[in-house]
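Box 3.1 A note on notation
Throughout this textbook, protein chains are presented in two layers. The first layer is the amino acid sequence; the second is a token string describing backbone geometry. Keep the layers aligned when reading.
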Amino acid sequence: MSIGDFEPLHVDVDCYTAAYRVSGSIATRFERVADIVNLAPASHLVVERATVSEYAAPVATLSAPQVLLALDELLFLVVGASRPNARPEMRIPKRAVQAQLAIPPFRLTGAVHVSVGSRPLDGLLNVTDRFLPMTDVAITSGVHEGLDRVVAALAVQRRLAHLMLVADDERPDQLLADVLDEETARSWFRRRSGEGEPGAE
């Protein structure tokens, strides 16, 4: 059986851009969230039975049978349900490292998985895949607080992240709050939206 003979999976997804959230389903041959976007066959994802909402006007939603979403503009993708794990023979031994990515207007706090024996930054920078998987992720936004949520897994486009932080290798139990306090993190996003300028409260 060739690769093209596999029946596609229909996966529920939430796709986040800088201004829009597109929810619906996509047809894919892949099970892992990062593979869905890293191995996408075209420049756009086809989201079926889609609902589009704009962060600036969350109650004004639009429904459409299909929406084409440019992969270049996709900040991150969340799958609606857990997908099966990779087959054991394809698994590379990895360890979880706590990380935080600032990808305006969002902040993602969760775990990235790096090869055993490598540095955490290698897992963020020295990989060829455009989208990086994260697990147990808290999604927050200082600009749009109604978008806050926690998800089991997502795939984030690394090149669009403005800042990336990882916990110290020598202190794997170190909290990200010890590295970057909450108010400083939120100030990144307020500045992006025009708030937090000199003289602002």
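Residues 84-90, 196-201 have pLDDT under 50 and may be disordered. The CA atoms of residues 8 and 28 lie 5 Å apart.
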